[in-house]
Amino acid sequence: MGTSLVKFSRDTARDVKQVARGWRWGRRPQVPRSAEPYVIPKETSVFPTKWARTPAAIAVREVLQKGALNSVLRWEVNPQVSGLDSLLKVNGPALIVANHSSHLDTPLVLCTLPDAMRRKTAVAAAADYFFDTWWRATASAIVFNTFPIERRGGKLSSTPGDLLADGWNVVVFPEGTRSPDGWMERFRMGAAYLAVEHGVPVIPVGIKGSFAAMPRGRGWPIPGRPTVAVRYGDPLRPAEGDSARDFAPKISAAVSALLDEESTTWWEARRRVAAGTSPSQSGPDAARWRRVWESTAPIKPAGTKRRAWK
């Protein structure tokens, strides 16, 4: 009897594991990426997030961000923050634009902003990733004040413009997704369009070391409290007559200059910007392992001269 019961328990556990592996826990499509052009897109419903900006939700988020999120972040990584004086040059809503290589990037930006600015900041998040299930959508909206944007359909959500008009700052990652190897990808024009259309400044942010601390595929930062650098730059404003196509390269160049500055010194980076010789932040033309190896070099302590990629 005992042997039969043990065998039954093992068989049941195996069956449960097999069902769990095949169960759809979210609404993400199961169609291979290569076959997506041949599949008729389904109508998607927009997850409402206006409730996340009510006074009650703001109060809850303040406790979560200043307490749990900030404590966990600084326990797991060592953020080095610079350029916060640049934020004093902004009076009113702004777009906060950063390179993107890790899920750490959003908490790094939110937890390093001044409190008054952080409380009035929302984050654009991919609808097909963060809003594919109700529990993920609810959690990200309440903790990070996210709102969904469609990154594949070619449409620009009206929510960012509405938030800017209401006085909210908006965090945007123009690459559209996390870098697969830590190097900066091509910037899309959504952020530039918003800046030109709504007449708001862009605050460039260079984030270095977040890929090494928590690359794609990891659900938690690596042990050892790795150093991550967050550098804010002077606000950019579209020039008279600038279109989104004209302004987008300026945003990308500003973020690249901040990453170059983080790798070397402020003076050397400024000289290269003036001479038009800033190194590309798209990484070396090499095998993926070499690109990953280069992008995961440890961040040196503040004030130390760092090597720039040539």
From TrEMBL:
Asked if Coiled coil is a keyword of the record, the answer is no
Region labeled Disordered — which residues?
273-310
What's a Pfam family in this record? Answer: Acyltransferase
**Could you tell me which SUPFAM superfamilies the record lists for this protein?**
Glycerol-3-phosphate (1)-acyltransferase
Transmembrane regions listed in the UniProt entry: none
GO process terms (BP): phosphatidic acid biosynthetic process
**Domain Phospholipid/glycerol acyltransferase residues, every copy:** 94-210
InterPro entries noted in UniProt: Plipid/glycerol_acylTrfase
GO molecular-function term, one example from the UniProt record: 1-acylglycerol-3-phosphate O-acyltransferase activity
UniProt KW keywords: Acyltransferase, Transferase
What name does the UniProt record give this protein? 1-acyl-sn-glycerol-3-phosphate acyltransferase
